[in-house]
Write a structure and sequence with these properties.
about 80 residues; alpha+beta; 5-stranded mixed sheet
């Protein structure tokens, strides 16, 4: 089981801030791809920052049962 936390517009689109998912994805990037299909995210994968257990990682970072994933879309402001 993987705990996913969505931020910003991704939370709005998914209609939840957190969810626990069963997945066959073995990497953080593959998990994002699966979730993007499920929730119909339109952000390209290279625009989303991924964090596993509170550390920013690349798409190839391996996943383990019990990991906590954060999906961080780009933000703007000034």
């Amino acid at each position: 089981m993987i705990e996913v936390t969505y931020f910003g517009v991704l939370a709005e689109i998914a209609r939840t801030r957190t969810e626990c998912v069963e997945t066959s994805a073995t990497t953080a990037g593959a998990l994002y791809d699966d979730l993007a299909d499920r929730h119909r995210f339109s952000w390209p994968p290279d625009r989303i920052r991924l964090a596993v257990n509170e550390a920013i990682v690349n798409r190839a970072h391996p996943l383990r049962d019990g990991d906590r994933i954060m999906l961080l879309p780009p933000v703007s402001g000034g």
